[in-house]
Amino acid sequence: FVSEKGLIKKQFDTPVRILQSFLKDISVSEIDETLAEFYRQFEQKIGNSQNEMKRDVNYVLCDFDSTAMADVIQLSNKIGEIDEKDWTSRQNELGKKLDNLISDTSSKIETTINQNYENLINQVTEFSEKDTLVRYYDSIDARINTPNISIEEKKNLTMQRNTLNWLRNGSAEVSKLAPG
């Protein structure tokens, strides 16, 4: 289910990759250590969210696996104990039960991914509203608007401001990359 939909990769890898491309552009310039720290914090939140989501989905899949296997083993233990007609009937019932279990598991995985995604959005929103992030953005803006700034420094600061904008608007950016 997860690999077919590609939800994990789309939902959590893409924001990190986009942000990393911003930082590659900045890395050729003088990158401010404060901006690099903001980036590390942001990337850590996305990475942690991805790990939590994988853990939660694996839990749902393990639950599915143990339930399905228990039912299959229970039926297989009946081989030789029941007649063929009863065996076929129970096998068909098990097939229907497993189909329902697969459907329920798919729904649980989707719910788990959505809950983890909402948690990520909340964390990123909280991060983007940090006073230090807002003050730092304002300081870059002020430096860009100073009259005696070189073209190269203005270019570097503008690139840093763009990256910082991406961090400040992180929840909106992550939302754009969300599934469905």
Outline the biggest β-sheet: none
Give the radius of gyration.
25 Å
The shape, in one word, is rod-shaped
Number of helices: 7
CA-CA gap between termini:
15 Å
What's the helical proportion of residues?
A: over 70%
Sketch the topology as an H/E string, one letter per element. HHHHHHH
Question: On the 0-100 scale, what is the average pLDDT?
Answer: 80
| Proportion of beta-strand residues | under 5%
Instruction: Find the count of extended strands (DSSP E, 2+ residues).
Output: 0
Broad structural category: mainly alpha
In terms of per-residue confidence, which ranges show pLDDT below 50 for 5 or more consecutive residues?
none
- Assembly type: single chain
What does this entry look like structurally?
- The structure is a single chain.
- The chain has seven helices and no strands.
- 85% of the residues lie in helices and 0% in strands.
- It has helices spanning 2-5, 7-27, 33-76, 84-128, 131-144, 151-168, 170-176.
- By secondary structure, the protein is mainly α.
- The radius of gyration is 25 Å and the shape is rod-shaped.
